Amino acid sequence: VDVEKLRRAVLEATRPANASKTLLDTTCAATSNPSLPVLNKKSILAETTGSGAQVKVWRAGAAGPLMVTCKGQVLNNTSPLVGSHSSSQWNGCDFNGGTCKWQSGISHVSQSKYCLLGDPVPCVEHGPGPEEPAGPLETIVVLTQPQWGAYYHFLIDALSRVFWLHAQHPAVLVDPKAFFHLGMVNEVGQAWARLAGIQTTSDGANRLLDGYWTARTVYFPPGNECANKVRGAEPFVISRMRTAVVSAAWAPSGPSLPPMGAAPKQALLVRRDPRVPRYKEARVILNHDSVVSKLEELLPGWEVVVFSDYPQPPDPVTTCQMFSRADMILGPHGAGLSNLICARKGTPVVEFQQWPHSWDFELLSLKLGLPYRGISTKMEHYGPGRVDLNRLQTAVLCSLEQVAGLAQGQDFLGAQTLSFAAPPAVPPQKQPEGQSSSGVSTGEPPPQHGNPPAHTTETAQGGSPEVAPATSSPPEQAAAAPAV
Questions:
Q1: Which residues in 238-272 are b (16+ Cβ under 10 Å) and which e?
Q2: What angle do CA 430, 432, 433 make, to 5 degrees?
Q3: pLDDT digits (tens, 9 = 90+) for 16-72
Q4: What is the mean pLDDT of residues 328-352?
Q5: Strand ranges in 236-286 using DSSP code E only, listed in sequence order
Q6: Burial class (CB in 10 A: 0-12, 13-18, 19+), 395
Q7: In Å, how far are 118, 135, 373 from 402, measured between CA atoms?
Q8: Is the preceding omega at residue 445 within 30 degrees of 0, hence cis?
Q9: pTM of the entire structure?
Q10: How far apart are CA 154 and CA 152, in angstroms?
């Protein structure tokens, strides 16, 4: 019996009698969340252009070095240069919540000693706090966004911003005097940074920072919009990040990435293991074993691979290889699905949604060209839950139908395959308290992403920015551009 034809026959047989002939709009609708607002795919996939797509460059003035907080906010003395009613547009999550004190039990700031690349070698006993900022350093590239140090926000919101630097200021990436504020300095952060093209190691050549640091020059790439505004990270950086990290994970000297669909096909199941200490067993799937058994039943001839965080997750290179090798990816809402950044276009994703649904991974899947299905559950953000096996069956069968359709040239991704020059007009989003809604306008034409655009250089005293010509010269020369 042809298994693929059997699956399609099962879908047709279970289609409601009064439904339309489009399978994905009927039977498969059971795995969409009826409470989710219709996503504006065109707006979500539109790349930012103009001044909003420029890396900002700030230089210290008479008031002294610039300050970078543990949250990734840049201050001139005590005045914010981004966020909190500053003149710079900021659409990321706000800077108000959380703590930067390293000794706090709820802080993500490093509590261990780390040293930086340099001669002599500068070291700190822990992530510097607001009362004891470290530095000054010559150059800091600020990538950190709230929530700093949390895996999803580190990987998708923060690290992806470095690809603006790749496009506009590539010389900074190899400048030994340039350091990268990423909010995560451990080996996980180091390994992901290397995959993204930052030359850094934890033993002797560290260029990553967290906590409070001061600098003479700060590079600030465009931020990624907070996902609760239903847009999420910039498509420009997300697509380039996937290409870079997957290519680096499957380096020429190592194993080769198997072709998509190579036997045996793999279903990668993300598991939040209950043996890992976590607050109130947050999003642990209580019927995990039943889910595995159901997948084995639905996917004969496939290999079901469990991606577990017990006793600890695989290293970033192995993680990226696992997600890019997968032919289907399933799992609960949580950090593990952040690794979708390594999944190949067309790989179906099934998320066990928390309640209420948070669309972080639905947005990420859309930008990566991953057919997405969500299984609604009663699982709260801070609590365990169960997956309905009937819904799981529908989601898996529908995902296989999508893959079959893609192989036949059908487009189940909708607007995902299109490219738009600018976002359409949309109603303004309400700004969170303490966040500026004003933008920075330079009057420059929208830059082409393939060429370095003009960059904005501002003194710490503020004032109108001066647009300096784009340059590929060393950072020391770029920083010496005339200021207002």
A1: bbbbbebbbebbbeeeeeeeeebeeeebbbbbbbb
A2: 125
A3: 444 333 334 445 655 555 445 567 888 899 999 998 899 999 999 888 899 999 999
A4: 96
A5: 266-271
A6: buried
A7: 52, 53, 10
A8: no
A9: 0.79
A10: 5
Tokens, residue 111: 């509590």
394, 27 Cβ separation under 8 angstroms: yes
| 457 membership: H or E segment, kind and range | strand 455-459
198 touches 207 (CB < 8 A)? yes
Token pair of 263 as six digits: 């036997």
Structure tokens at 75: 């201050």
User: Which pairing describes strands 455-459 and 372-376: parallel, antiparallel, or unpaired?
Assistant: unpaired
> What are φ and ψ of residue 288, in 5° steps?
-55, -45
Lowest mean pLDDT among 2-6, 226-230, 477-481: 477-481
Q: What is the spatial distance between Cα 90 and Cα 306, in angstroms, rounded to a whole number?
A: 38
Return the minimum-mean-pLDDT range out of 3-17, 216-230, 244-258.
3-17
Q: What is the DSSP string of 217-248?
A: EEEEPPPPPPGGGS--S-HHHHHHHHHHHHHH
Report residue 255's pLDDT band, with 50, 70 and 90 as the boundaries: confident
Residues making up the chain, counted from first to last: 484
The tokens for 202 are 């934890």
Q: Which of 244, 229, 293 is nearest to 91 (CA)?
A: 229
Map residue 450 onto helix, strand or coil: coil
- Residue where the block lists tokens 């929530």: 147
* Distant-in-sequence, close-in-space partners of 266: CB < 8 Å, separation ≥ 6: 302, 303, 304, 305, 325, 326, 327, 328
